[in-house]
Amino acid sequence: MQTKKFVLLDIDYVTRNGEAVIRLFGKVIGESDQNHIIVLDKSFRPYIYIIPSNTSDIGACTRDLSELGLFGVEKVFRNDMGESKGVLKITLKHPRNIPKLRDKIRNLASVKEVREYDIPFYRRYLIDKGLSPMNVVQVEGKVLSAKSSTCVFQLENPPTTLDYSLPKLSFLSFDIEVYSPHGMPQSDRDPIIMISFSSNQGFQKVFSTKNSALDFVEVVADEKELLGKFAETIQFIDPDVLLGYNSDAFDLPYIKDRATRLGVPLKIGIDGSQPKSMKIGFNNAPMIRGRIHVDLYPNIRRYLQINRHTLEYVYKELFGAEKLDIPGDEIHNYWDEGGDKLKQLFMYSLDDAVSVTRIGEKMLPLSIELTRIVGQPLFEVARMASGRHVEWYLIKKSFQYGNLVPDKAPKSELSRRKAIHTVGGYVKEPVNGLHEEIVYFDFRSLYPSIIISKNISPDSLTDNNGKDCHITPEYGHRFLKEPAGFIPLAIGRILQDRIRIKSMMKESEDNRERQVLDVQQQALKRMANTIYGLYNHNTFRWYSLECSEAITAWGRDFLKKTMEDARTHGFEPVYADTDGFFATYKRHDE
């Protein structure tokens, strides 16, 4: 039996002999002859939970289910909104059987609810095995094959996560230029004329169908050879992460379509596969197996609050420098004119790729840390809204705490929730005029702290007046003081980790270590600050109007009382908003 260590980059499953086989893709650590590994795990089975109609007669439900030809039925205990329940864990042979059997199971008279049927199989594996992509994993088993730089490995024992620092990942950025004299590029008519590359390890190249004296330009015979060079370069550089800017919506789909039309295979996945489209939220994203394709454009839009998000504008915002720019509708003119204009076009194309690399190096660490916290693949985390980060973190924590995950709400309920509006934080309009000796008071992590201190969670909400409770100002909602609710426990862990990391930052004398720790605490801060607003988000699995109202009510109450207290100490508030206020100080001798 052999042992392998690798950075977990990606995960999926394939069907072999009618059974689902998990595949873990990773960057090997400590071996010079192998760069990538594909680990196969045949042992994991998909499952769902069944809540019987009559909890005192689970046997009737078990008998009904046995007639459906399931792989296994097991009675287990899980927590559901603060109540421990005996439920049935139904194991199936293949994930595709879940949607086929879900409705049949729901229609059984002995079944009350079907739960956790909508957690994808590969995500279920990560959660149950305690694995997070972008962490170092150790596996034991045997090598099935070792071709080129990739090892295929059969898992024999459960994988384990190691406490390793993340090694430097290799990035390769790309950008295309299209000849489109008739307006917006159309892949059914307009050819790609150049593809530029830049890596974080010094590789810079432009491939083009026109010649140039520039040493970074390599000429090819035609567009078909150009597309072949695209695949060949990715295979040769062998990056862990492939970066683009608007590559989900433009570059990769355009390359795929042109390659299909010209009969060029794009075997750029670690397993030799071609890019496939995956739906994430409302959008489609090209996925490359074993490599992480990241489109920085939606990432930047989420985290950088600026007026425009063009590559040129973002680059100037991040680095304080101008990058080369040629208007898209002028590219064909630069191409046709040749000479200095063509030279500028080559330099512009390369500059695009280099700029994407630099932006990726600056912005990706945050997404990598979020991936490690959330426990889902970076390919998806980089495209998720902040609310989805929190939801998958809570799904992971639900498994760890032995909780059942709430179902998504039906469309009718989503519509009802969307029409409900809650009162937000307290705002005091600014006092007109110029003010001197201004001070600012703010609460550290106000809303997350309220959630924890007042135990605000759907499973701690009660209408029992006889219990020892925190009672919400204005509304009178009651939250049990004990035991701690699921959401306060989860958010408390986030805040504890952030405090610990910030303490480590203060003690560290290593600049690089402080930078890494700072990114980690920023990721945790984003998670903590996102949770409170989700209680009133109509799609949130743990939606609770009462929880949402309670958080902002206590926030308003704390802010108003603090302002009154400040007045007794000589401060006069001049403006307040949600979690802090500005005040002038009046000297006592005046």
State the helix count: 16
| Strand order within the widest beta sheet | 14-13-12-11-15-18
Structural class label: alpha+beta
Tell me the β content.
25-35%
Integer average pLDDT: 92
The end-to-end span amounts to: 82 Å
Largest sheet: 6 strands, mixed
According to DSSP, the number of beta strands is: 25
**Oligomer, anyone?**
single chain
Rough outline:
globular
Radius of gyration: 28 Å
- The low-confidence parts are none
Characterise this structure.
The chain is α+β, with helices and mostly antiparallel strands and 590 residues long. It is 38% helix and 26% strand. The strands form six sheets. It has a six-stranded mixed beta sheet. α7 (311-319) packs across α9 (339-374) and α11 (386-401) crosses α15 (511-534). The radius of gyration is 28 Å and the shape is globular. The termini are far apart. The model has no long low-confidence stretch (mean pLDDT 92).
Short description:
This protein is α+β, with helices and mostly antiparallel strands and 590 residues long. The protein contains 16 helices and 25 strands. The model has no long low-confidence stretch (mean pLDDT 92).
What attributes does this structure have?
590 residues; globular; 5-stranded mixed β-barrel; alpha+beta; 16 helices
